[in-house]
Design goal:
Elements lengths: L1 E6 L2 E6 L2 E5 L13 E4 L9 H6 L6 E4 L1 H4 L5 E4 L5 E4 L2 E7 L14 E7 L2 E5 L17 E5 L8 H11 L3 E5 L11 H11 L3 E2 L8 E3 L1
Helix pairs in contact: 3-4
Length: about 210
């Protein structure tokens, strides 16, 4: 399995012979076509219809929430938190993602995703605060967590999410790309690794890649 951070909340994952994308808002030119595209919600920095179309083929499966689906075309499966499906042997489950004290993401209308492939479980949190439902997300190989604050949990708050889930590896996302979501990933890494057993991997947007 290969995980490539493209920038912001956008990732490309190669697993089980398939190419998956999470929230392809940041997308390099000539990106490989997608077998599966997972879109956590309809906000512009997560759901870009033109970019999604550019990596889609007639066989591409798009899994997303109802509001995002209204913006897209193709082979779309609408999910809500708690829903599960399987595509070509890859298991996908929609997880809760919401704000507790902010108005941007309400409970039940937005999603994160847990993907199981090659005996590994990877979690893309979407836009979320630290929420009680994270306590049930156990056995994660990789967790991709927002750390930029404003619309999501902050870097400091994310430490509580990591403590709840205990993933083997954590990748920071949703920081230092758009205004208002700044974070010092290196300082955050030291704090996480000092207080948990999780390993932090900071990927360089568009270049960094983690191979599992």
């Amino acid at each position: 399995m290969k995980i490539k951070w493209l920038g912001h909340a956008s990732f490309r994952v190669e697993a089980a012979g398939k190419t998956l994308y999470f929230d392809p808002f940041v997308l390099p030119d000539k990106s490989p076509k997608a077998d599966i595209i997972l879109v956590t919600h309809e906000h512009f920095d997560h759901c870009d219809p033109d970019k999604i179309k550019s990596i889609s083929t007639p066989k591409t499966r798009i899994v997303t929430t109802s509001k995002a689906a209204e913006m897209l075309s193709g082979n779309i499966t609408i999910v809500k938190p708690g829903d599960s499906l399987e595509i070509d042997g890859i298991k996908i489950r929609a997880a809760y993602a919401y704000n507790k004290n902010k108005p941007f993401h309400t409970r039940g209308e937005y999603a994160g995703f847990v993907v199981e492939a090659e005996g590994k479980r990877i979690y893309h949190a979407g836009d979320t605060d630290v929420i009680p439902e994270m306590n049930r997300l156990q056995g994660l190989t990789v967790a991709m967590l927002p750390i930029g604050g404003t619309y999501t949990m902050t870097a400091d708050e994310s430490v509580d999410a990591i403590a709840a889930m205990k993933p083997k590896i954590v990748i920071p996302m949703h920081y230092n790309y758009i205004k208002g979501v700044e974070a010092d990933a290196e300082k955050w890494k030291m704090k996480v690794e000092a207080g948990s057993m999780s390993r932090v991997v900071i990927l360089e947007g568009g270049k960094g890649e983690l191979e599992l």
